[in-house]
Amino acid sequence: MRTSKTLIIPFVFIALAGCTRIPTGSVGVLQHFDGTIDNIIVNPGMQLSIFDAYIPIDTTLTRVSVEKLQPKDSNGVPLENVQVVVTFRLDPSKVASFYIKTKELDREDNGLYTLGPKILQESVIPYAVQLATERSDLATISSHLGDYAETIRQVSVSRLDKLYPNNPFIIQSVTVPNFELPETIQKQVNAKAGFLAELQTIEAEKQVVEQRQQLVQERATVSANALAQAAHATGLSVEQVIAWERVEALKTLAGSKAGASVLVLDK
């Protein structure tokens, strides 16, 4: 009977204990029974604790999209709509301390939690987009969206570092899938694009003409050199060589026509 009682006690403790699986690609945050959070990192795997809870936090790539932003450019002209997509992941070593400070957890569709999407959506991205937009005019930005996205990324990183000294966010990329200009600005951009396209066409045609002229000059130079060499070799003048070539050409033409006769006048 002692053996039976001895075995019952561990099973009771196991039943009372919390058992949580931390998936690969996540880290666990340990929350004690009294609500305090331990500043340690719990690695993936099955975790067993008594009266404590492990919160699995996703540290793989996460995408956050913000749209319908209307930042103003350097002239105070607002955009109709801009959409920005930020791809980021979390530094596992900084997750616990960040959560202790912010208590910012967002539940994902897969049942895991991640840190910070609301911070990015509501604070960081709108701030970065406005700062990046006011550095130039809308027409210029629209033709350099890659640089615009990179500026948003840099400003976002700087903003996060300033807000959170132990910043866990690692921003991988920023894209701008939608950039809608006001109608008046869009017309200006379209007109400029058409003008530039016309200039490119004119420039291309000019280059073709110049290439043809250069080819004619090269052929003339080759022909002149050949005549000079022939005159030197035969002792004839250049004019005599030209006349002789004409005669030979006429003979060849006459020979190619059956029954044709050619009269050559020697002047």
UniProtKB/TrEMBL annotation:
Residues 21-210 form the Band domain. It holds the Pfam family Band_7. InterPro entries: Band_7 (IPR001107). This is Band 7 domain-containing protein.
